[in-house]
Amino acid sequence: MRTVPIYISFFLMLTFLSCEREDQVTKFINIENSIVNLTDSSSIIIYSNLALSVSNLKIGNASGGQALSFSSVNKLSDNIFRAYLSNEENYEYTTQCGVQCIFDEVLYKSAYFQILKPKLDINMLKVEKDEIIYDNSCHAAFTDIIEYDNSCFVTFREAKRHAPSDESEYGKIIIMNNHNQSWNVIADMVYPGYDLRDPKLYVIKGNLYILCGIVKLVDGELTRCGNAISRYNGESFGPLEIMSLDTEIPFWIWRLTESDSKFYGIGYKEGLYPVLFESSDLKEWKSLSEIPIPGVPTEADLVVRNNKMNVVIRRDNSTSFFCTADGDYKKWICSDMGVRFESPCIGYIDDNYIIVAGRYRSDGCQETAILKYCYHTNESKCLYITDNKPSDNAYPGLFIKYPHLYMSYYEGTQESTRIHYCMLNI
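Below the sequence we write its predicted structure tokens.
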């Protein structure tokens, strides 16, 4: 990898900061045009340094001056593409997986783009579309949604009922996408001798992966046996591979996140503290720390921002907790969110709040909802609740692609549920 001398980076930062805000765009484009021969890693280092130097630059309701327009941000991202594609290896990789996955994996996750992307002040959501995309008169539930290769992918578990009474009722995983604007099943996955549950979708290094939990009946009791993962090759998903933990106890990792080429997940087992796990290859996982939460903590979602791990954790029959840890992620600070929120899925985080979807329990009811939680003030606001109020619902997936928020969820009864695809305006 070619490196950039410190004095060059310093010169670029000074040059960039010497311009007015709108002139910064033009100047930055000129700078980018002069470094198109750099590798992606070197370019992103420069972009990150520049962005960190102007961290007060905001999109939208900027204070202290004119903000960069969305068209300006598009110009900047176009030039990052140009720099990235100038490298022969990067160009070959892009032609294999498509420009969208490069955007997702390189630009969106870089410090540069994290700072310059739109700052979302989400106070209201308006539903634009809510449609049933799967109804097979069975128990279809526990969803997730993601964008990949210019299509939305939705996954869920299908079985006769929520909890199997024997092996013949073990569940399978269904994956759908809306390629060509039509929802179709592209895969169903089984693992002989096991019940598959709680599938989750991730785009990692341009590839689509699915994570799911595996359980089986042992002496009539449904027993968690760990997790398995599979990769999509563009046409089908490969065989499920069992994830290996360094603990004797088979913790169940419910959701994952990625930071600095490492993967993290919160493993849980009822009666024990949840455990943060780390992996470099998605196969071998080592335990890092316990999260000391009272009660019965279970499902958790997590995200890293500014080198801080942020976690929302469900507690059975009680209110949820929000926890953070700096540095090596071993010292946790936790607070009671004051709301009972289950199956959490974090869709957005900034310096003040998170947007999280899940099952909201209030006044004896349970509903699929989207919550805005301000973690500095420990205040929450319900931004959206689905209109349908069945006895069984939620377990949503969620992602934001401005100006829309996309969500999957299920609703129905214990015997028959339906899968929904929902698009909301921010």
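The mean pLDDT is 80.
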